[in-house]
Amino acid sequence: MDAWQLFVPAIAILIPLLRLILFRRGDDGRRGRLPPGPPAVPLLGSTVWLTNSLYDAEPVVKRLMSRHGPVVSLRFGSQLLVFVADRRLAHAALVESGASLADRPSQAASARLVGEGDTMISRASYGPVWRLLRRNLVADTLHPSRAHLFAPVRARVRRLLVDRLREEHGEAEAAPRAVVETFQYAMFCLLVLMCFGEQLDEDAVRAIGAAERDTMLYMSSEMGVFNFFPAITRHLFRGRLQKAHALRRRKEELFVPLINSRREYKKNGGEPKKETTTFTHSYVDNLLDINLPEDGNRALTDDELVMLCSEFLVAGTDSTSAALQWIMAELVRNPSIQSKLYEEIKSKTGGGGQHEVSEEDVHDMPYLKAVVLEGLRKHPPAHMLLPHKAAEDMDVGGYLIPKGTIVNFMVAEMGRDEKEWEKPMEFMPERFLPGGDGEGVDVTSSKGIRMMPFGVGRRICPGLGIAMLHLEYFVANMVREFEWKEVAGDEVDFAEKREFNTVMAKPLRVRLVPRSTLE
């Protein structure tokens, strides 16, 4: 029997009374005002965890909401978790009272044990370090004027993506293959170049991708045990910690030479040693210019640089490739919508031998934007935002949210709410055109939330603008190059599966018919 299976009952026997006392004191006589939820027991938390995993909390929460309404609570150990699915309450909490929910929960013990600090934009506490890191990213690397400089990079990746799709799917006799791996590789190539300013060969790109994925998989599947009594479990499961440290060292071995190369590049006044592979700007360049005034005005350490680069790569790859797969699946299932989009592409780009849809072209394609928005509404890559932490006692929908509570927002539920959207489970891009029920929707949701695939408020995704550009640009070019058709006997299935994002449980397989010329 696994040592952990013996350990938990032993602890449950030794300290239930202490936990019970803490539970009673924690509500401070205000239990009646907390959001409704299932009963809780000492040590474990809510009784639903007896038969469910926190990793699969979404269906549990949805069942509770069908019974109690759009605000419910659960306990995990002694931590109170609140889930909100009402768009108006979400706007009041995240926009109107933004500072109260701008913080993040503390890093899990498992992350701290392997040296993952809080110097990351997505995880940092709300304060000066977070503001500095976010401002650096938004005002420079992702600013529209700077993003435009990466147009040659996107064009290069577009050619790579189209060539790979043609090789793998363009032959009539070829067996259909899942396209998601091609999407992931292409998007990762793009983010690697934007991050490090260097065009790497395929082996190097795949090595970085494997290091990222191996680390994420191991942390999510094997390290959760350290979040319970880490002072003890770190000794019981030393082997797991050693493996996690080895995976982290592997990332450092791959990243640090690339970071040092950019240091040399900056010292040389921005003169590339290899003109054909070195790009004039990168995310690392900006990071190397940062000094932390709250910590003696020091520069970022190599460990911090590695974490920030890792965050940049993962955030920009997984969500974009997942969204691309969902959107293209809908276009395969709905050929009339795909045809209408292709007609718009032809009308805006014409014939004349043009080999791609340019970034300037996509700015003048309203139906393309509607297709992308509808994909994000119906299939948001993340069904819940990264968790927020209440900085003070606050009111949400008449319920008390005590200071320190972790608050989660149900993105998919808001975008699929039948009270707000006509036929929400149908794919209808026209809803975002004039006269539709989504006309004028602002994905930043500053004035009101209808859908929030990028979050809202002070913690809104800093990559919103570049993500929309990438989705529109690559969707347009894939539709311009190929007619995407369903495979007989291997039809599109919209069943969902939770990985790092919500992905297709049955990956999309297609038959691609090259469009030889634009008519």
UniProtKB/TrEMBL annotation:
Cofactor: heme
Keyword Lyase applies: no
Gene3D superfamilies (UniProt xref): Cytochrome P450 (1.10.630.10)
SUPFAM superfamilies: Cytochrome P450
Any one GO cellular component localisation term in the record: membrane
Binding-site residues, heme: C461
Transmembrane segment boundaries: 6-23
InterPro entries on file: Cyt_P450 (IPR001128), Cyt_P450_CS (IPR017972), Cyt_P450_E_grp-I (IPR002401), Cyt_P450_sf (IPR036396), Plant_metabolite_P450s (IPR051103)
Keyword Transmembrane helix: yes
Localization per record: Membrane
Membrane topology summary: Single-pass membrane protein
GO molecular function term, any single one: iron ion binding
Keywords of the record: Heme, Iron, Membrane, Metal-binding, Monooxygenase, Oxidoreductase, Transmembrane, Transmembrane helix
Protein family: Belongs to the cytochrome P450 family.
Protein name: Cytochrome P450
